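User: Could you write out the 3D structure of this protein bound to heme C? I've included everything you need below.
Assistant: Certainly. Input first, then the structure.
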Amino acid sequence: MAAPIKHILTAIATVCTIISLSTAHAADEPENIIKFRQNVMKGNGAHITNIAAVVKGQVTTTANLAADAQAIADGLENFGKLFPTGTEGGKTNALAKVWDDRAGFDKALADAQDAAENMIGAAASNDIATIGKALGALGKSCGGCHKPYRKKM
Ligand code: HEC
């Protein structure tokens, strides 16, 4: 066989192997989606805790506020897509009500997204009182979803 053709065939075989490898791992297993959404939320928890540390004066640098606020907004943006049917069981703290009252859940999510956007604006103000007020509203919006839609933790 001519060398160039052999190379082309080898390249094709490699591509086929990569494709079959990526499909061999079943994607979007419920347990993986559950872990994934919990990690998004862990991130939210870390970011809001850091904003609170600044508001309380435990940490004086305000350099991270914008990134923390943006990360919360980004995390919430696609959060609604992480609750497909099949992920209501297993190791989740989400209550069945997420699926039974999807409109209410989506509303709670939209409210939290508004509060996160508001926090981005507040962070840009660099005014601790403004940031504190936005933090209060943001925290309330987290609870506005956790209370009805998450197990007590
Ligand atoms: C629209 C609903 C909703 C909003 C808004 C929301 N959460 Fe959650 N959160 C959940 C659900 C549902 C779970 C449980 C997920 C699971 O176990 O599958 C959760 C879990 C968590 C967890 C625990 C993660 C873990 O398993 O270790 C933390 C921390 C958390 N949220 C923080 C926040 C913070 C901070 C905010 C606000 C910035 C927020 N959440 C906003 C619904 C929401």
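The chain has a mean pLDDT of 91.
User: Perfect, thank you.
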